């Protein structure tokens, strides 16, 4: 009886091992086993791509104004937000120092003119030499140029509006000492109604957009879309962000209630149609940015993983712009179980 018990115990692990092995083989795919998939016939076509972007409004003629010479500001005639007219005096310097420089230059010119007249008379009487006469003429010319420079500096001891518009920013106040060329005021040409919306796009979308393309602009303060068109493209990317800007001019911008820096969204409609493929969203794998992967088959037996460039994505379809050239059969279902070179079985 004891001998039979030992034999029974010896067979228990064998039975357990056999049961476990059988269970595992049913739950895993045997290496090289054909994977069932569904395929979709594809061919290139044309479609229009809608490009979404956002940005801010400006007049593109915003100007920073400064004094030509340094000094102390005596008057500031405007505040931020004030409307200005072209030629209006906006700020002035204390003119004491500038006027003194102008008066000195004027007196020097008058003396040089008297010297030139006197030496000229002496030269004609053969008392002064030709060299003395020429030196007096040079001194007169130099003093004349110095007088012009002093007169120019005197005229720029005040700041005048260069265009009709509004004061955007004020950088200084009366009594403040400013250097030559230091920003004092910033104005724009909003009074002329030439507003533009500048939006940022990536390099791929930049290549799709052309000057003259139609666009729609969404403004929160209007609660509606307004039409516009692309008027300019940046010739180079922003050195900080790497993005490219597009300028959109809204229709009838003079009738809009806009302010510099106001945020807006835009949709741009490129007039040149794109050539590519529309594929099911489920067929797309490992999408990142404007790139992703899909599986295709050339012989109906083997799967091949290819890299594609993406266009517009939706919840049901994906626009493919590059990568499917030369392929006509896309694996639309079962891609999650595939790897490059997997054996497949096409099912209906």
Automatic annotation (TrEMBL):
NCBIfam families: RND_mfp
Pfam families membership: BSH_CzcB, YknX_C
Boundaries of every CzcB-like barrel-sandwich hybrid domain copy: 65-187
One of the record's GO cellular component terms: efflux pump complex
Name under which the protein is recorded: RND family efflux transporter MFP subunit
Gene Ontology terms for molecular function: efflux transmembrane transporter activity
Occurrences of domain YknX-like C-terminal permuted SH3-like (ranges): 278-345
Highest taxon, organism lineage: Bacteria
Similarity remark: Belongs to the membrane fusion protein (MFP) (TC 8.A.1) family.
PROSITE patterns, sorted: PROKAR_LIPOPROTEIN
Cited InterPro entries: BSH_CzcB-like, RND_pump_MFP, YknX-like_C
Residue intervals passing through the bilayer: none
């Amino acid at each position: 009886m004891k001998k039979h018990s030992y034999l029974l115990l010896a067979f228990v692990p064998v039975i357990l091992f056999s049961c476990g092995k059988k269970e595992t083989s049913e739950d895993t795919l045997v290496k090289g086993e054909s994977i069932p998939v569904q395929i979709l016939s594809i061919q290139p076509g044309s479609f229009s791509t809608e490009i979404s972007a956002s940005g801010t409004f400006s007049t593109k003629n915003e100007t920073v104004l400064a004094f030509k010479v340094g000094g102390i500001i005596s008057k500031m005639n405007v505040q931020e937000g004030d409307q200005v007219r072209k030629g209006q005096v906006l700020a002035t310097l204390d003119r004491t120092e500038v006027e003194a420089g102008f008066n000195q230059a004027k007196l020097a010119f008058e003396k040089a003119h008297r010297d030139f007249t006197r030496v000229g008379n002496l030269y004609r009487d053969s008392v002064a030499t030709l060299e003395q006469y020429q030196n007096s003429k040079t001194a007169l010319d130099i003093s004349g140029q110095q007088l012009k420079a002093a007169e120019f500096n005197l005229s720029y001891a005040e700041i005048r509006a260069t265009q009709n518009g509004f004061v955007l920013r004020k950088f200084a106040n009366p009594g403040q000492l400013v250097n030559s060329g230091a920003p004092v005021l910033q104005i724009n040409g909003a009074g002329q109604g030439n507003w533009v919306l500048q939006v940022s796009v990536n390099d791929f979308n930049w290549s799709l957009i052309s000057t003259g393309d139609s666009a729609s602009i969404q403004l929160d303060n209007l609660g509606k879309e307004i039409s516009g068109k692309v008027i300019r493209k940046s010739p180079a990317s922003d050195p900080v962000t790497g993005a490219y800007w597009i300028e959109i001019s809204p229709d009838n911008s003079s009738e809009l209630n806009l302010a510099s820096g106001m945020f807006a969204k835009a949709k741009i409609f490129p007039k040149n149609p794109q050539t590519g493929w529309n594929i099911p969203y489920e067929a797309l794998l490992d999408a990142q940015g404007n790139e992703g992967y899909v599986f295709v088959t050339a012989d109906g037996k083997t799967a091949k993983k290819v890299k594609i460039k993406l266009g517009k994505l939706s919840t049901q379809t994906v626009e493919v712009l590059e990568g499917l050239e030369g392929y006509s059969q896309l694996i639309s279902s079962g891609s999650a179980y595939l790897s490059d070179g997997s054996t497949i079985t096409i099912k209906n």
